[in-house]
Amino acid sequence: MNKIFTTAILCAFVFTANAQTTPTIQPFGKIDKSDLEMTKCDFEADANAEVLFDKGTVFFTDAEIVLERHVRIKIFNDNGKTAADVHIPYWGGGHFEWIEKLQAQTINQNNGNVEIVKVDKKQIFDKRIDRDRSEMVLTFPDVKPGSVIEYKYSILSQSAGDFPDWYFQSELPTRYSEIEAKVPDALHYKNLVKVTQPYAVNSRDGNGQISKIALANIPSINAEPYMSSVKDNFQCILTQLLSITPGAGSFGQNFSESWQKIGENEADFDDFGAQFRKKLTGEEDILNHVKSLKTDDEKIAYIFNQVKNTMKWNDLYLRYTDDGTAKAWDKKIGNSTEINLMVYHLLMRAGIKAYPILMSTRKNGKVNPAYPTRYQFNTTATYVPIDSATYYVLDATNKYNMYNVIPHNLLNSFGLTIDKENRKYDITFIQNTAPVRDVVLINADIKPDGKMDGMAQISSFSYNRIDNVESYKTDGEKKFIENLKEGNNDLKISSVKFDNMDVDSLPLTQNINFNLDLTGSDENYIYFKPNLFISMGANPFLSEKRTTDIDFGYNNNYIISGNYKLPAGYKTDALPKSARMDMSDQSIGFKRLVVEQEGVITVRYTISFKKSIMFKENYEEIHEFFKKMYEMLNEQIILKKA
Predict the structure, then answer these.
(1) What local confidence, expressed as pLDDT, does residue 160 receive?
(2) 473, 508, 597 from 501: Cα distances, Å
(3) Could you read off the pLDDT of 556-603 as tens digits, one per residue?
(4) Would the CA dihedral through 39, 41, 47, 49 be positive or negative?
(5) Mean pLDDT score of the chain, rounded to an integer?
(6) Containing domain of residue 512, as a range?
(7) Which UniProt keywords are given for this protein, alphabetically ordered (predicted)?
């Protein structure tokens, strides 16, 4: 089953069938001249390439379930040539799935003649990603603007439970996408449908099961600022086997999945649950030290840091162990599940209540709680309940993670906690609603020659601390300073000194000495913007439209307070007014306080986020709010010579 893409959220917006002109699906190698001559997508004019059609047919043989798929793509320009780099994922481990009858070719028009160049078998690579996942990689020849590429294959599985999911949408606009299913009467499936536009075709069999569904003129979905995985947003149909009725050589059986069943299976799996009690070499030394610590928090922090500092992550997110925890510990290298099961094991041995939690990273996609399947997960962390309202989620793969801060790439999705001892398995939403702060204090003198000299102190908490420490230690001081300047070439930073760089429990403090050329100033006027070191970057929501929900991950808060001493002989000519602005649902707030007293101008900005997820339906208001906020952040102060 093509579960690699199974992460969509069940959507309530399923429209009724709507008659449309159905584009023609042509046999492999047959093509209309108009498709070769077309120069742009009719419904997305700026597209670099377009899927002309994507047709899938699912049927059953005596021994297999088969998906036959035929895809045809039009290349409009040089930027669209990346669409000819095709990867076909499948579950190749243990011959779970396999691909047959793969054909691929490039179609061009030369002086009115159709030329077809087949993909040589030497340009088709069967690539193993990890123990379970593989992919076929195709390199198409002679691809240029105007080309059409197409490929066709069958993907087979021996399990009736592996009915393929179907994604109508992709990063390319799609003229037509169709899935047809021919299901034996004895098999009963459940469909979870996420479709937000009218159907081109919607037909079902006598049992109400989908026999053919199609969409036409499907817009592309591409990366937008602060979006979750692009796969979370695709229109799709997800399918699960519910039951097999008697009469087809089988007794009646219920195959309906539940999170309880999945948890039980994972708890008994050799490469997961069987690892929980595997002893680690030298663990008694760690546990003996833990006994000397007074609080559970100290014990959790110590064990977490011991594993984090001992192990090297091999950059693989996997939901199972590969070498096993004991062997990985001895080798000092392991995948995400191996490393985090070590954390769980040591916490358990230390008497700390903790559970492994199966999770999906942000890039892999959000877990759909209405669609129980282990394939949605791609990693394991350690879940530690603290009290009825507080919990930790520990991931020791990243050297900069903190034990008491849920990793950013695991936020706003569901995880499955594994309580093997009590045979209890709960699907749990993981979030962090606590405000995260960046506090900036500036004291500066404005000089009559149009320069500013000053000091700034930036205190970064939680995720902001993690990001800054990682940036500094990964990129070095020179690049870190360039990032602080945010492209302002008039800003010169002469020194940066850090406090608490290696103390996780305290905010990272940056003490900065700087000077700034106040461009545009002359002998009579001085101009400056009091928006230094805000660290928000440019406005991320400049686009007039938004196709996906916004997911900030966490609630960031910025406090920037600056005191600016005026030069002798100058007075204010224009001063921004104090102001306040809030979203209608209070999800974002902005305040600006401006005061002048005894030759010092004080400007204080407060920007607070109270929701980390915002829906695309509210984007018009979000867009307008950010536009006004950035305008206010960029308002100048003007000083005039007295």
Answers:
(1) 83
(2) 10, 6, 36
(3) 999 999 999 999 999 999 999 999 999 999 999 999 999 999 999 999
(4) negative
(5) 93
(6) 435-641
(7) Signal
Burial 385-407 (b: 16+ CB within 10 A, else e): eeeeeebbbbbbbeebbbbbbbb
- The pLDDT value given to residue 12: 33
Which of 251, 279, 310 delimits the end of a domain?
A: 251
Asked if 238 contacts 191 with a C-beta cutoff of 8 angstroms, the reply is yes
pLDDT at 11: 37
Q: Are 153 and 102 in contact (CB under 8 A)?
A: yes
Residue 245 shares a structural domain with residue 209? yes
The CATH number given to whatever domain includes residue 603 is 2.60.120.1130
The residue written with tokens 């960046």 in the block is 438
Nearest to 437 by CA among 351, 557, 348: 557
Same domain, 452 and 357: no
Q: How many domains does the chain have?
A: 3
Same domain, 346 and 381: yes
Q: Return the pLDDT at 7.
A: 33
Instruction: Give 253-294 pLDDT, tens digit per residue.
Output: 667 789 999 999 999 999 999 999 999 999 999 999 999 999
Residues 234, 278 within the same domain: no
24: tokens are 């023609």
Residues 6+ apart with CB under 8 A from 349: 283, 287
> Token match 């985090």: residue?
340
Q: In this structure, are 562 and 612 located in the same domain?
A: yes
Residues 318 and 228 in one domain: no
Which residue from 95, 85, 186 is spatially nearest to 137, judged by alpha carbons? 85
Across 524-539, average pLDDT: 94
Residue for token digits 């546990």? 287
pTM: 0.90
Structure-block tokens of residue 480: 């870190």
- Estimate to the nearest angstrom the gap between the alpha carbon of 195 and the chain centroid: 21
> Does the pLDDT value for residue 92 go beyond 50?
yes
Domain boundary among 375, 401, 430: 430
Token pair listed for 455: 């000091």
Percent of the chain clearing pLDDT 90 (strictly above): 85
Position of tokens 């086997």? 241
Q: What is the CATH number of the domain that holds 341?
A: 3.10.620.30
Q: What is the pLDDT of residue 333?
A: 98
Element (H, E) at 628: helix 619-633
Q: Is the separation of the CB atoms in 614 and 584 below 8 Å?
A: no
Write phi, then psi, for 320 (nearest 5 degrees).
-145, 165
